């Protein structure tokens, strides 16, 4: 087998969902610093992301950043995101379907579809009894569909993808993909599934030149935590440690560039370290930034909901 060549970012283009904030914003910023164009798909941009796009939005900018408003639960909008990237840059080389949610009340296993709280939502998909869990659509279905869309374009485009013309897909899993999580079973299920999906596509690199990898972050200082007081109560601010989004973005960049990482590998990202999560007999997450001290608070909250009369019975 031929030796792998380094993957140069300069002049390439990346599609990133969820780039309006958090980990994916940090990844977009890092790619731009390496002269890689960025196409951000998200519902909205936080001020720091808007400033980043504005700084690179000119048609003469190099690298360039564009924003395409995208509801990742709607497949036509995902397709339009890819079309926009091709229209602006002719092709794309990296896909990061990073948009995700962390068991919000509007899409929460312990608040069944049809319950009033499940309608208090910000996503285009409603947990309203019509057949969709928004958390699954966002965290699992959307990254799978994005991967399909990327493969279809790369395999049928010119020049066609190959080991000599490699492409990259980087997913955002979680340490929740290795352990149980009573208070957030939908989120935990999606991350277990996503890690399995990543590993299952490992053969694509040697056969097609498409490397599919993922990162499994610990407790990251992003709006998924900091904008949600109901989640922050699990943390002991004096004992627990945050992992910064920039640390995760650096691991994502390693997935794209490193010749030492093969297809199908998932990198765990903690405070000050990364490691490969083994497919078999892995010891599980440990180290700094990997856990919260008061997980039982949300566990008890879920049990309280379950003990309410009529839990899960659809209103007539």
Would you give an account of this structure?
- Belongs to the short-chain dehydrogenases/reductases (SDR) family.
- Pfam families: adh_short.
- One of its GO terms (cellular component) is cytoplasm.
- Keywords: NADP, Oxidoreductase.
- One of its GO terms (molecular function) is oxidoreductase activity.
- The chain is 35% helix and 14% strand.
- It starts with 12 loop residues before the first strand and ends in a 10-residue tail after the last helix.
- The protein is globular, with a radius of gyration of 19 Å.
- An eight-stranded mixed beta sheet has the order 3-2-1-4-5-6-7-8, with helices on both faces.
- The protein has 316 residues and is α/β, with parallel strands linked by helices.
- Helix 3 runs parallel beside helix 4 (134-156).
- The chain has a single domain, classed as NAD(P)-binding Rossmann-like Domain (Rossmann fold, 3-Layer(aba) Sandwich), CATH 3.40.50.720.
- Mean pLDDT is 91; it is low at 120-126.
């Amino acid at each position: 087998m031929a030796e792998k060549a380094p993957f140069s970012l300069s002049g390439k283009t990346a599609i990133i969902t969820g780039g309006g904030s958090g980990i994916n914003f940090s990844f977009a910023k890092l790619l731009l610093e390496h002269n890689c164009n960025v196409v951000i798909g998200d519902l909205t941009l936080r001020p720091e992301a808007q400033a980043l796009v504005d700084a690179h939005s000119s048609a003469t900018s190099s690298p360039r950043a564009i924003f395409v408003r995208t509801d990742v639960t709607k497949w036509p909008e995902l397709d339009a995101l890819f079309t926009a990237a091709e229209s602006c840059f002719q092709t794309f080389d990296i896909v990061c379907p990073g948009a995700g949610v962390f068991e919000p009340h509007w899409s929460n296993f312990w608040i069944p579809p049809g319950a009033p709280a499940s309608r208090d939502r910000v996503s285009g998909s409603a947990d309203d009894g019509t057949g969709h869990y928004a958390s699954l659509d966002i965290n699992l279905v959307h990254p799978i569909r994005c991967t399909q869309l990327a493969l279809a374009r790369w395999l049928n485009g010119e020049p066609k993808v190959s080991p000599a013309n490699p492409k990259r897909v980087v997913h955002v899993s979680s340490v929740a993909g290795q352990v149980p999580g009573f208070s957030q079973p939908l989120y935990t299920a999606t991350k277990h599934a996503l890690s399995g999906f990543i590993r299952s596509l490992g053969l694509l690199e040697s056969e097609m030149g498409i490397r599919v990898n993922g990162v499994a972050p610990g407790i990251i200082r992003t709006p998924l935590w900091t904008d949600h007081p109901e989640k922050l109560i699990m943390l002991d601010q004096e004992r627990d440690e945050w992992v910064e989004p920039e640390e995760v973005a650096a691991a994502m960049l390693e997935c794209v560039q490193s010749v030492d990482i093969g297809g199908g590998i998932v990198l765990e990202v903690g405070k000050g370290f990364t490691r490969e999560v083994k497919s078999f007999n892995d010891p599980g997450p440990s180290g700094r930034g990997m856990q919260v001290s008061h997980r039982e608070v949300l566990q008890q909250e879920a049990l309280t909901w379950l003990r309410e009369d009529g839990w899960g019975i659809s209103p007539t």
